[in-house]
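hiii, so i know i said id send this last week but things got crazy w the move. better late than never?? heres the sequnce for the chain we talked about at the cafe, plus the structure i predicted for it. fair warning i was half asleep when i ran it
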Amino acid sequence: MQINAHSKNDLSYYMVRWLAFGACAGLFSPVTPHEAMTTGVLWGMKTQHFIWGLLFGAACGYAFTWSQNRFNMARDKKTTWSIALAFWMGFNIAFAGMSML
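okay and structure toks below
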């Protein structure tokens, strides 16, 4: 896959925001009593949440940038927010499913 200069700039622009969002969401996600009982280490669980948040942000950032450059070249705000919401919901479901394994 060849990435042109415009797409590369978009990737770095959107990726930073999605990574920050994912990291914050991971840090502020609650530790369940089951997690606390099985590991016994709060900061170990928060670190794991942070890493999963970064992975979530990276996946969303890459997919969002690709879809913006592919389907929303005019950068219409409604389309942008629709794409962002769709990827956020889709990747939340995917990551929740992976965490159940």
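btw Residues 5-100 form one domain. thought thatd interest u
miss u guys!!
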